[in-house]
Structures are given as structure tokens and as C-alpha cells.
Amino acid sequence: MMSATSTLALTHFVTLADSFDKDKVTPGVLGFIVFAVIGGAVWLLMKSMNKQMKKVDFEEQPEDGGAGTTASAAAQAPEPKTS
Prior knowledge:
Helices cover 70% and strands 0% of the residues. By secondary structure, the protein is an all-alpha fold.
């Protein structure tokens, strides 16, 4: 048997359930947690990438010197033997 208080509580929950829009879908707490975890992971990855990129020591060759190095490399290559 149900008591009067439990019956009263159930009637309040039923009215709340009826006022809830059944066509509306919300992500809720789980959606927020997943979104926050993904955001934190992206932040950590970006932080790590910046750290690794600062370690890179890259010096670009001047454009004028680029054509000369390929010509000198071709001159140093041995000529193919013909029989």
C-alpha cells in the first residue's frame, strides 16, 4: 500500500513530467562533461605542440642560393657509364 505522502510526491513528479517538452533534446550533464574533457585534451595538445615547435631550429636558405646548390649537386654526380 502506498502512503499519502508518496502518492502526493508521485503526483508532483507526474505534473513535472507532463510540463517537460518531449520534443526537446538536451545534452545534460554528461554532454557538458564530454565537451569539457575534449576541450581540455585539445588545450593540452596545443600546449605540447607549441613546446615541440619551440625546439625546432630551422634556418631557411636564401632564394638565390637555392638554384646554385642544385646545380653544384648535379655537377658532382657521376656520369653514367656507356658501353
